[in-house]
Amino acid sequence: MTPSDNHAERKAFYDTISQRNLSPLWEVLHALVPSAPNTPCVPACWKYSDIQPFLRAAGQLITAEEAVRRVLILENPALKGQSCITQSLYAGLQVILPGEVAPGHRHTQSALRFVVEGQGAYTAVDGERCRMAPGDFIITPSWTWHDHGHSGKVEVDEPVVWLDGLDIPMLKFFDAGFAENGSAASQRATKPEGVSLHKYGANMMPVRHQSPFGQTSPIFSYPYDRTREALHNLEQHAEVDAWDGVKLRYVNPATGGSPMPTMATFMQRLPAGFEGKPYRQTDGEVFSVVEGQGSISIEHSGKTLVYQFSPRDHFVVPSWHTVRLNSQLGCVLFSFSDRPVHQALGIHKEERMS
Ligand code: 1HN
User: Fold this and answer.
1) Does residue 21 belong to any structural domain of this protein?
2) Mutation pick for ligand 1 pocket among 142, 146, 166, 172 (CB with most ligand atoms within 8 Å)
3) Structural element, H or E, at residue 343
4) Does any domain span residue 237?
5) Which residues have CB under 6 Å of ligand 1?
6) Which of 20, 61, 241, 340 is deepest in the core (most CB within 10 A)?
7) What is the pTM of this model?
8) 148 assigned to some structural domain
């Protein structure tokens, strides 16, 4: 029989084998394979009224050109200094002022932009410019040249702010991050504005289609007016889901899959009077409030956190946290998560409670 009260002996053994870069699995087994996901991330909410002054102040503190990207990172409070909102996702709010340019570069990380406020900005992806309007969902596919600008007049027009969502922590995990600076601050437009949407946005595509962006959607801008109309019509004429309200996922029209290999994006409408049932899922989800008002309750460490939200607020729901959504007057929510990766690995789990 081996005694189980030989703690000193075990400790000495661990110290000895540590010198050979060995360590005992039995001391960490439970933590390595927990009975349910045990994320270090915590729920968090950024009220726009609270942070907008700091976005404005950042605009006075540094130019977009000097900053390269003038962004305030939405850091998960439990992962400070790690530039991430969940363990796999990065999120930030980017500000560009009239007349400014955010210079061109490319990187292996995929990016999504979700326009939060302001008019007059554009982004360019591999030679095609695209105007940005509030509520638009825009993609920068992996390894494509991209720069941003604001063509409004200085001192007359408003700053434009958008949410950046990137798969930075995931690529860091795989040690697969590469980047390159462009030779010019702004790339030359080589394609007509809107041509991608004309090619792929009418439930049709070119007969001899060859994916321009690999596994990423050939549409890189999904304008809000179309999304809004679809949700509005579905609310009027289709069944409302008891957990999600009316929730649609954005698709790569060439595959039916997610717009980017690493990130799924969604837009949902909660009808007036909606009291959602609780659910949880393994993909941590980041939300940007588009229209209306509502609240989300999140179970965390035995407590129920409630965030009241209004337009341009942002919040994060970590993996396997039970949530419910409510809205008295109705609202529209954009969100993104790393669900495509969970699905590719066959590990995505969702539980919908009654
Ligand atoms: C980036 O390239 C952009 O292109 C935004 O707008 C945020 C965060 C980290 C690394 C690269 C952009 C970024 C980023």
Assistant:
1) no
2) 166
3) helix 339-344
4) yes
5) 69, 71, 92, 94, 107, 111, 146, 148, 164, 166, 168
6) 340
7) 0.97
8) yes
Give the position, in ligand 1's atom list, of the atom nearest the Cα of 113.
Answer: 6
C-alpha R_g of the chain: 23
CA distance 92 to 85: 9
For 116, the domain range is 34-352
pLDDT tens digits, residue range 173-221?
999 999 999 999 899 999 999 999 999 999 999 999 899 999 999 999 9
Residue nearest to atom 1 of ligand 1 (CA): 69
Residue 107 Cα: closest atom of ligand 1: 2
In a domain, 342, yes or no: yes
Query: CATH number, domain at 108?
Result: 2.60.120.10
> Where is 351: in which H helix or E strand?
strand 350-352
- 321 CA distance to ligand 1 middle (Å): 28
CA of 18 from ligand 1 middle (Å) equals 40
Give kind and range of the element (H or E) at residue 138: strand 137-140
What's the domain count of the chain? Answer: 1
Output the CA–CA distances (angstroms, integers) from residue 145 to 126, 186, 188, 323, in the order listed. 5, 10, 11, 38
- Partnered with residue 110 across adjacent β-strands are none
Q: Spell 84-119 as b/e; 16+ CB within 10 A means b.
A: bbbbbbbbbbbbbbbbbbbbbebbebbbbbbbbbbe
Tokens encoding 64: 């977009």
Using the 8-state DSSP alphabet, how is residue 78 labeled?
Answer: G
Q: Which amino acid residue places its CA nearest to atom 3 of ligand 1? A: 69
| Ligand 1 centre distance from Cα of residue 102 (Å) | 10
CA 169/CA 188 separation, integer angstroms = 31
Contact call for residues 95 and 54 (beta carbons, < 8 A): no
> Of all atoms in ligand 1, which is nearest to the CA of residue 92?
7
Query: What per-residue confidence (pLDDT) applies to 1?
Result: 59
CB contact at 8 A, 273 and 317:
no
Write the CB contacts of 234 (distance below 8 Å, at least 6 apart in sequence).
246, 248, 269
| pLDDT at 3 exceeding the cut of 80 | no
